[in-house]
Amino acid sequence: MLGSERTNMVVAEATAALSQEGKRENDGTPLPDLQTEFMVNMTCEGCVNAVRSKLEPLEGVRRVDVDLENQVVRVFGSAPVKSLITAIESTGRDVRLIGQGVPSEFTVSAAVAEFKGPLVYGVVRFAQVSMEASRIEAYFSGLTPGKHGWSINMYGDLTRGAASTGAIYNVESSSTEASVAEAMGDLGTLEAGIDGDAEYSGTKLGLEVHDLIGRAVVVYEDEHKSKNGITAAVIARSACVGQNYKKICLCDGTVIWNSSNSDFVKQ
């Protein structure tokens, strides 16, 4: 199959998936499909089979492609990143997320905001899954139990923490009523359990990932966003599929298997 034909097929599948059954959002509606790439420490066909056997039965997984030579696993479907990582790690192999989105369709199709404490830790991932919608996945720890509002704010200025990030991000809408009712950057509420952990997965219609770079994700003390945000993180461009196969960081020489996700987890 030609590369352009393959890309068009993947894009069509991702767009159509907005109306298909799949892994469900927090509010019960289906999540859209997208492609997620992992670097997995595999050395033989036995490793490949072990990884496939854990991924393919997962709800929302539609296709698993494995490139043993480059140690890359590509998963197409609606299953959240956390479920995919847990499944791969259950085989006893190291795994790192290296890309997400729809290949070659958008200039910037993936972005990430990383919360590194000292109180709240977490990761928020954005992926453009069609021209009409973006998929959002978030994982937090260190929150006080209960509901917390969260949003995308206009500026990534963290000189005064969340207080210097400006108003909630919004764009001109063809529907004045919709624009007034809810700003584009209003992400609703997170609900933290008694352990302080919160997870979210959902889709935001009209949200364009390329316009989020340099803005901030803010989490508030209460669900109504009536008080100042308690934490904020800048949204940065993230690697899309097919863009990040390096195994050694050019910044500090760290080998990918020696890196850690502990920066985003409250100890």
TrEMBL record:
Entries under CDD domains matching the protein: HMA
Keywords: Copper
Family recorded in the similarity comment: In the C-terminal section; belongs to the Cu-Zn superoxide dismutase family.
Cofactor(s) demanded: Cu(2+)
InterPro entries, sorted: HMA_dom, HMA_dom_sf, SOD-like_Cu/Zn_dom_sf, SOD_Cu/Zn_/chaperone, SOD_Cu_Zn_dom
Domain of life: Eukaryota
Name of this protein: Superoxide dismutase copper chaperone
All residue ranges annotated as the HMA domain in the record: 33-96
Organism: Riccia fluitans
Pfam families linked: HMA (PF00403), Sod_Cu (PF00080)
